[in-house]
Amino acid sequence: MKVIVAENYEEMSCLAADIVKEVVLNKPDAVLGLATGRSPEGLYRKLAEFCGEGIVSFKKVRTVNLDEYEGLTAENSNSYAYFMKEKLFSLTDIDAENTFIPDGGAADAEKECRRYACIAGSLQRDLQVLGLGRNGHIGFNEPFTPFDSLTHVVQLTDSTIAANAAMFGSADEVPQRAITMGIDEIMRADKILVLACGREKADAVFNTVRGEITEACPASILQKHPDVTLIADKEAAKLLF
Ligand code: GLP
User: Fold this and answer.
1) Rounded to two decimals, what is the model's pTM?
2) Angle between helices 9-26 and 41-52 (to 10 degrees)
3) pLDDT per position as a tens digit, 115-150
4) I need a surface site. Which of 104, 125, 173, 187 has the fewest CB within 10 A?
């Protein structure tokens, strides 16, 4: 795994944007696996700038998002679909029809998982962007999710609910369940880019890069992938050195 330590969030975002830009310049119809959360926000801002400046076009790019809260439709401002539209899709020339995200509003979540697993399986990702949960989760694959999991419904842990509560106002408002792409599907991307920022990610970064490969830390499986770049700011990387 290649580890890059960035001075701060801004530098992490710029380095990440350069990597994504290269992928799209080399392959205009690239498939990008995308994540939500604070970690990739700066990256998305940069990509939108590149697009506005005519440096890169997303017209032919297809995107496959990692996860969505159960019960939240794309119109709900706390949904990941809304996040992606606001932070990236509406700011670029991407065709909305080429963007895929689990439907949190689906009446039958299990059926939605099967539908989404087909999408994830048929669109081979050139690059997968990942954030890291404080407990080492990737997507919404919480600790002890089997490494061979495919898209499934998860019960969120209290720590994840607490970490994501700020967006909702309070922990009580955070949905208890979500739909997430599985670890096996994440690992099938050709290239993986992990972003981590802040001291609360230091343990997760350490366990991802140096820890034992164990389902107790879902991201530790990334050590087995042949092409992973992890960009962390100094605080998140501090236990590595
Ligand atoms: C959330 C998301 C993940 C995200 C992670 C870290 O639970 N489901 O996809 O990577 O938490 O979020 P953040 O980048 O806001 O710290």
Assistant:
1) 0.97
2) 50
3) 999 999 999 999 999 999 999 999 999 999 999 999
4) 173
For residues 193 and 131, what is the distance between their CA atoms, to the nearest angstrom? 9
Neighbours of 102 (CB within 10 A): 30
For 24, 34, 164, the CA distances from 133, given in Å and listed in that order, are: 27, 15, 10
* Cβ atoms 235, 199 nearer than 8 A: yes
The values of phi and psi at residue 197, to 5°, are -140, 135
Model pLDDT for residues 25-72, shown as the tens digit of each residue: 999 999 999 999 999 999 999 999 999 999 999 999 999 999 999 999
Angle formed at CA 25 by CA 19 and CA 28, multiple of 5 degrees? 120
- 160 alpha carbon – ligand 1 mean position (Å): 8
225 is catalytic: no
Among 9, 13, 36, residue to substitute to test ligand 1 (most atoms within 8 Å of Cβ): 36
